[in-house]
Amino acid sequence: MSHPHEPRLARVAAMVADPARSRMLAYLLSGEYASASELAKVASVTPATASGHLARLQEARFVVCEPRGRHRYYRLADADVAHALEALAVVAERDDHDAAWSHPERARLRQARCCYGHLAGRLGVRLFSSLQGVGGLQTVSSGFELTEAGRSWLGDLGLSPPEPNGKRRFAYACLDWSERRDHLAGQLADQIFLHLVEQGWVRRGSGRSVDITPSGVKALLPRLAELPSTHSRAE
User: Fold this and answer.
1) Where are the domains of the chain?
2) Which of 56, 107, 116, 220 is the most buried (most CB within 10 A)?
3) Rounded CA Rg of the chain
């Protein structure tokens, strides 16, 4: 029996069920463009097979393509796709969360990583908690808006907060894959991440990884709230 008014979850599940497509999508969670050949290598498939997978992902509006000369580059279609993938990852690993994050490479991602242009991992969650702790965010229908306290806190970091541009959501919560708590997403979160990079407090690594620099340890970490040891959000 057809249920036309229910969400088409099977269509989404089919896209992420294939291991090759799943690896491609996970790689693109960095928020950056990647070439077809790069994604083929990530997925451990031939270029021809990768092209087929990317065509399906593009048709389903999971990714978008930008031709540049003879090459084609892909990224996730939008933030909604990124957040859905993060949420699926939380569900997929809820029974073996601690074991999954004990691997050294995973531990690095857990400390800090990029989630579609904004900061995620423990560092991202601490930043969000710090803004909330000073009363820096006020809940609105679209997520959050900055209060004067929030503007002052960001100003102490050397950032002049952007004004909402109306093209996308300004600030809202995004469930963090490793911490199972929220970090901050949206236009404001992207600007904060760019500012931290420009200050030299964090730097992009390979893929999604983000490293905290020695200057970041001195200048940034003391300003951030510490997190409780329990994962109360999803347990």
Assistant:
1) 9-77, 97-223
2) 116
3) 19
With CA atoms as reference, report the closest residue to 74 among 88, 53, 89: 53
Class of domain 9-77: mainly alpha
- CA of 231: how far to CAs of 41, 96, 159, 179, in Å? 34, 13, 30, 7
- Each of the 235 residues of the chain gets a pLDDT tens digit; together they read 556 655 667 777 888 889 999 999 988 988 888 999 999 999 999 999 999 999 999 999 999 999 888 888 999 998 888 888 888 887 777 766 666 677 777 788 889 999 888 999 999 999 999 999 999 999 999 999 999 999 999 999 999 988 888 778 899 998 888 888 999 999 999 999 999 999 999 999 877 889 999 999 999 999 998 877 644 444 4
Q: How is residue 160 annotated by DSSP? A: -
The sign one gets for the Cα dihedral 89, 186, 233, 205 is positive
Residues with Cβ within 8 Å of 157's Cβ and at least 6 positions away in sequence, in order, are 195, 199, 220, 223
Contacts of 208 (CB under 8 A, 6+ apart): 27, 29, 30, 109, 113, 114, 115
Convert 113-136 into a string of H (helix), E (strand) and C (coil). EEECCEEEHHHHHHHHHHHHHCCC
With CA atoms as reference, report the closest residue to 231 among 112, 132, 101, 130.
Answer: 101
**Residue 114, both tokens:** 């990029």
110: nearest Cα among 229, 209, 189: 209
